[in-house]
Amino acid sequence: MINKKFKTGIIALFFWLTLVFNLWSDDTSSAPAMNTYNRAVQLYESKNWDAAKDYFHQYLAEYSDTPLYVTCLYYLAYCYHQLGDKQQAILLYHKVIDQAKGGDAFWADMAQKRIEEVLGNSG
Fold first, then answer.
1. Alpha helices in the chain (DSSP H)
2. pTM for this one?
3. What is the model's pLDDT at position 53?
4. Spatial CB neighbours of 34, under 8 Å, sequence gap ≥ 6
5. Can you tell me the mean pLDDT for 33-49?
6. Residue 33 CB: number of other CB atoms within 10 A?
7. How far apart are CA 79 and CA 47, in angstroms?
8. What average pLDDT score do residues 61-84 get?
9. Nearest alpha-carbon partner for 66 in 95, 97, 37, 98
């Protein structure tokens, strides 16, 4: 059962992503980055974890200085999590925690919860 805090977090996430997209989309030089990000998210949402993973890797390699870097890092970790690579998922979740600053604190909290989930399920 999804608790109220999780639902609120998801709503906040979509609000934040919409805000970032709208602010960022005004910069035409970021179109290739947004195309890569949008493709990765489409694949993620369709649970095509392996293909989404590849696009998130591409995004992170090419656009490391963007506002969506930590978000993509979290999504990449979740792809590995879903693909059963718990070690890589935990490594990336820790990287999210290390890199999340200010407005990205939400991702650090989510990553910590996912680490606990992975460790709890590996017992």
1. 4-25, 31-45, 49-62, 69-82, 86-99, 105-121
2. 0.76
3. 98
4. 21, 24, 25
5. 95
6. 17
7. 9
8. 95
9. 37
